[in-house]
Write a structure and sequence with these properties.
- By secondary structure, the chain is an all-alpha fold.
- The protein has one domain.
- The chain is about 85% helix and about 0% strand.
- The longest helix has about 35 residues.
- The termini are far apart.
Length: about 450
């Protein structure tokens, strides 16, 4: 059993603690993506381009659901972090048990809704007829695993609230290795194709969720889970959802906009679907460094806000931005340097490599905007301000991308023109969120000044 490690975020230096939280988060996400990429690599190498396209065509739908789950779990992360800062042990106990039970019930509900809608989703994405059957099989099997995916994200949020990102990383590493081995068994030995990699993913997710649950039950900290005390406290759930729902919607809005873009990509043929899917599974590795520092910022600021350390909150924002740019730039540069050899791991078709490399060159520099979006959104969430970033994402990201797909793409039906939507929408979203933060900061400072004068 791994030993849970918490970090004192209320005292001492900030930068080293942000890195200690962020790097395991980034590595966790990178490993998760590498194991997901193994799904595509296995079917691409041993089944064929069609099966690879079938798995890749589902990426936006899966991203939509997973991003919603991650956003909702951020609500638990913030609430727990604030209570740790306040020293509210009774509130922590109630919030932990509410989070776990809500995740389980919520995952079952989403799985049921997903299974009902699965057959209607793929035609909306313009998935080619020759791969639609395989794509539907993959999606249905994947959706069965939603309860454990939802549960894992909330369990990981419980650990993150104390600054412990190492435990989820260790658990994910073990389950990810199991995923790769199961991929090979189901595809090479049992000949299950796209459905086989979906089954392997579902089983490995079950393993990771079960492992974290057992570790939480054995924990010696105030975050211990006691199964007989699992119940939903309405006021705790409201607090979690107050932050988590806008955060989930913000994540989902980006994913929804990407569903529209993926639908346009799917209309360009199997080769471009395969190329875009391979590139996405590489570029997202750099993005995970960007997003992990934003999550670290939320945890650090949440605890210090709960403790009333507002000056320390502002220092955490500055430090996080600097570190995020450094680590994201380094990871992005490596991907651009080794783009073609990495793409060949997925498919050796020269056209797949050419289109995939183009997508990488277009999107990786855009993470300069993503850092601003994620870090400032995470900072605002730590204070309970979760609605404004979601609205900005809805208008600037989702609205503009949908407009681009339906108004501009039909007149310029080329992959090169379609991909230009990413830098435009990310830049606009970053500008609006940073501007809102500046307005909110001035208002907050004004309220604090008035309070001091009254005292």
């Amino acid at each position: 059993m791994t030993k849970s490690v918490s970090i004192d975020l209320l005292h001492g230096s900030i930068g080293d603690k942000v890195v200690r939280i962020a790097l395991p988060l980034a590595l966790t996400a990178v490993l998760q993506q590498l194991f997901n990429a193994a799904d595509i690599a296995v079917v691409g190498r041993f089944v064929g381009e069609g099966a690879m396209a079938a798995v890749g065509a589902n990426a936006p739908v899966i991203g939509l659901v997973v991003n919603l789950f991650i956003g909702l779990s951020l609500g638990a992360n913030v609430v727990l972090a604030q209570m740790i800062g306040q020293g509210d042990h009774e509130g922590l106990r109630k919030a932990v048990h509410t989070s776990i039970l809500f995740a389980l019930f919520g995952g079952v509900l989403f799985a049921a809704l997903g299974e009902l809608a699965a057959a209607r989703i793929l035609p909306l994405l313009s998935v080619p007829e020759d791969v639609r059957g395989m794509a539907l099989t993959y999606l249905r099997i994947y959706l069965l695993g939603l309860p454990v995916i939802f549960l894992y994200n909330f369990e990981a949020a419980v650990y993150r609230s104390r600054g412990d990102t190492r435990t989820p990383l260790i658990v994910l590493t073990v389950s990810g290795v199991a995923n790769v081995l199961l991929n090979l068994v189901f595809v090479l030995v049992l000949g299950m194709g796209a459905g086989g990699v979906a089954a392997a993913t579902a089983l490995s997710n079950l393993l990771s969720a079960a492992a974290l649950f057992v570790l939480l039950c054995r924990s010696k900290t105030e975050l211990r889970v006691i199964p007989r005390e699992l119940r939903i406290e309405p006021h705790m759930l409201r607090n979690i959802l107050h932050i988590g729902v806008p955060a989930g919607l913000q994540n989902m809005v980006f994913a929804l906009a990407n569903v529209c873009v993926q639908s346009a990509i799917n209309s360009l043929g199997t080769t471009i679907i395969a190329a875009s899917s391979a590139a996405y599974n590489l570029e997202i590795l750099s993005y995970y460094f960007c997003n992990s520092f934003a999550q670290a910022c939320t945890t650090v600021v949440g605890q210090n806000y709960g403790a009333g350390e507002l000056g320390r909150c502002r220092r955490a924002l500055r430090v996080t931005l600097l570190l995020d740019y450094a680590f994201t730039a380094a990871s992005g540069a490596l991907l651009l340097i080794f783009a073609e050899p990495l793409l060949r791991l997925f498919n050796t078709d020269p056209e797949v490599i050419r289109y995939g490399a183009f997508r990488l060159r277009m999107l990786i520099p855009c993470y300069a905007f993503s850092i601003l979006i994620d870090v400032f959104s995470g900072y605002l969430r730590a204070f309970g301000e979760s609605v404004a970033p979601a609205v900005a994402s809805l208008v600037c990201a989702c609205g503009t991308r949908i407009a681009w797909v339906f108004l501009i793409f039909p007149h310029h039906r080329r992959f090169e023109h379609l991909i230009q939507v990413y830098p435009i929408t990310l830049g606009a979203t970053a500008l609006v969120i940073v501007a809102w933060w500046a307005v909110w900061q001035r208002r907050s400072s004004g309220r604090q000044t008035e309070t001091r004068q009254e005292v």
